[in-house]
Each structure stands twice: as structure tokens, then as C-alpha cells.
């Protein structure tokens, strides 16, 4: 059985995660076949997707910020036990659009609940499971929000509509997490042209999967 790998993607609003993921998953899919599992948070299975619908309405629903943090942790727990852990146990490559660092940045930093508190909450939810690699696409908050309003396809949710100060705190928390976990979190400048961001991201993924059959640079 091949060695399991868990890779997460993170970034503030407007960093271009969706575009980068679509490009690279399109390349990895034919190489890995059934050994590639792509998923997202909150979501990844019916229970977690139902929680996502509560968490990400287009308009503010009056949710208390601690309730929000608890719901993200609950969705993550279900995602872990139903989607991530079985795939890793089977030796697969799991690529998740967001994981624990999103809660640390958005609820711990952006909502001012405290990174340490959100870390403790999510340690209970995840039993300490962290990705082998976290790719953080970095963009200044003002640039990211401008991209969201100009280019995002689909709905603009309530997190997108938070004021600039919220998004600055989110980004600053991500950068602090990079300093705390330098071996796991790798930063890519997402203000570069998309093809350059994809190329840099591809190199990080290929390094993780270099010994895996069927994967080539």
C-alpha cells in the first residue's frame, strides 16, 4: 500500500484557492486515480455539508461567534471520521480545501476568540491530526476582497462581507501560524499571476508525492 498523504489548502478571501485547486487536481486525478480524495471544509459528507449550509448563508443570520466556532469544529470532526481518516487508512492522498488553520485564523483571529482557545477546541475534534503539508496562498486583505467582489462566481457569503479589519486579522493570524509551524505551512505569494501560483504550488505537492507510483513532475 502506498504511503498516505494529507495536504490542506488555506488562504484568505480572494487568494485564488479554487482556481489553483481545480488546475492541480485536474493534473493529479489521471495520475492517482482512486488514490486521490479531494474534499472541503466545512463539508465533505452529508452531515458536514448540512452544517456548512448553516454556517455560510449569504446574509448574516445572527449567529453567535462561539456557536460558529463550535459548529466548524463539529463539521470538522465528522469530516475527519467519515472522510479523511478512512482515506488515509487506505493509503490515499487527501487534498482538502481548508482544515484546522481556517478556524484558527477566522474564529481565533478574525472573531477575536483567541487562537489558543480555538486550538484546544479543535484538538478535541481532530485528536491532534494535522496535515503533512499545508499550502497557504497569501494575499493582502484589501486585494483579496477586491478580487472577491469583482470576480467571484456564485454567492458572496457573510464572511466575504465582513469589514476590512476582520480580514486583516485573519491574514495576520495565518502569517503567525506560518511562523509557528514552518515545517508544515508553506506560503505562496498569491499576488503573482495565476500560472506562477500554480507552478509554485505544483512544486510543493510534487515534493510531497515524489516517491509515489504514477506521480511525475
Describe this entry's structure for a reader.
There is one protein chain. The model has no long low-confidence stretch (mean pLDDT 93). The protein contains eight helices and five strands; from the N terminus they run E-H-E-H-H-E-H-H-E-H-H-E-H. It is α/β, with parallel strands linked by helices and 217 residues long. Helix content is 54%, strand content 12%. Its EC number is 2.7.4.9. It catalyses: dTMP + ATP = dTDP + ADP. Belongs to the thymidylate kinase family. InterPro entries: P-loop_NTPase, Thymidylate_kin-like_dom, Thymidylate_kin_CS, Thymidylate_kinase.
Give a concise summary.
This protein is of the alpha/beta class and 217 residues long. The protein has 8 helices and 5 strands; from the N terminus they run βαβααβααβααβα. The protein has a single domain, classed as P-loop containing nucleotide triphosphate hydrolases (Rossmann fold, 3-Layer(aba) Sandwich).
